[in-house]
Amino acid sequence: YERERGRFKIFRAKAIVLATGGIGRAYKITSNSWESTGDGLALGYEAGAELIDMEFVQFHPTGMIWPPSVMGILVTEGVRGEGGILTNNEGKRFMFDSIPENYRAQTADNAEEGWRYCQGDKNARRPPELLTRDHVARCIVREIKEGRGTPHGGVYLDIAWIKEKLPNAAEYIKRKLPSMYHQFKQLADIDITEQPMEVGPTTHYAMGGIHVDPDTQMSRVLGLFAAGECAAGINGANRLGGNSLSDIVVFGKRAGEFAAKFAKENQHGRTDSEAIEIIAREAVAPFERDDGENPYQVQKDLQEMMQNNVGIVRNEIEMKTALDHLKKFWERTNRVGVSRHREFNPGWHTALDLKNLLIVSEAITQAALER
Q1: So what's the pLDDT on residue 239?
Q2: Does the active-site annotation cover 80?
Q3: CA distances to 15, 271, 272, 309 from 275, in Å
Q4: What are the pLDDT digits (tens) for 67-95?
Q5: Angle, vertex CA 231, rays to CA 226 and CA 232, nearest 5
């Protein structure tokens, strides 16, 4: 449908490429934009495509957590790469206590060596703040849960400390990290050359998605292709930084080429007018519920529930609790109501997104339990 005017449109196509991005808005804290509501995954699933690896959700260890208006916005790994350190509310650099055995030989065990690495010393090992995203995120969550977090529920990321090492530290930080300097100054009124940042894990990327052929990017539904984050299969359980860009460049090109080839070799399928009418009626049903539940509240509660029960650290009891909650969320979604009309109505858009969010949330939870 056309979001601005609320008009439904029908496009007949011989091939379709889904490139709708991820599922970040299923969680309370995310670096993803407002439209990452799992639409492509849900559409593909309902058309008969297979979803795989849905339990693998990547949480970037450092997102902004304060003020609430900027919660989840990414704080680049470049801050840690330039010497930024993670500390708890006791001032302790806690990552040195949590170096996995299989990374110990490649990781600095003291602050001096870690600093030399950040300054380009090829003989120095990397600091523990630069371990894999999943490990750093779990360590941050541990500090928060054990009561060593910041006032707003995160940890401190401190780049200002390098003034102990460099005489012109402020200018160095502004030159090396201009976007981060302006981001915190404008959005949180924090000068990162003088103060530490409050950060915490943020839902960042979904490794799971529509199962596609690695060569053609076609799903098991003939003529339905997927590319980018809504497709799955190349990132395993934990995507490495930078690979999503390579993914969309390489496999986006393949999806387009093979979709075009498929379209040239095949005819239009049959348009099911009755199915289209049913979907259209379901879409406008919230307008008929004057006393229906607020879709924003349902979305907020769903995000809170997923964050608390199917987040970074998971256990069977919490995930089974999540499935029970999801049944109730389906009932609440079927009761949501919106007012006004179809033009420029974000409340209606949120109501339409709920079904897709619930499909991907249930897929993540079920897959995680099975794993």
Answers
A1: 85
A2: yes
A3: 19, 9, 5, 36
A4: 888 888 889 889 999 999 999 999 999 99
A5: 145
Active site annotation includes 60: yes
The single residue of 7, 25, 60, 349 carrying the catalytic annotation is 60
The pLDDT assigned to 237 comes to 86
Amino acid identity of 152?
Answer: H
Cα–Cα distance between 210 and 231 in angstroms, integer?
5
Phi-psi map region of 167: left, alpha, beta (phi>0 left; psi -120 to 50 alpha) = alpha
Q: What is the pLDDT of residues 132-191, one digit of tens each?
A: 888 999 999 999 989 999 999 899 999 999 999 999 999 999 999 999 999 999 999 999
Q: What is the pTM of this model?
A: 0.87
Which region, left, alpha or beta, applies to residue 36 given φ > 0 means left and ψ of -120 to 50 means alpha? beta
Dist CA 75 CA 83 (whole Å): 14
Question: Is CATH 3.30.2350.10 the classification given to domain 69-201?
Answer: no
Identified catalytic residue from 80, 125, 142, 204: 80
Where in the sequence of the chain do the CATH 3.90.700.10 domains occur?
A: 69-201
Fold of 16-56+207-370: Methane Monooxygenase Hydroxylase; Chain G, domain 1 (1.20.58)
Distance separating alpha carbons of residues 299 and 42, to the nearest angstrom: 16
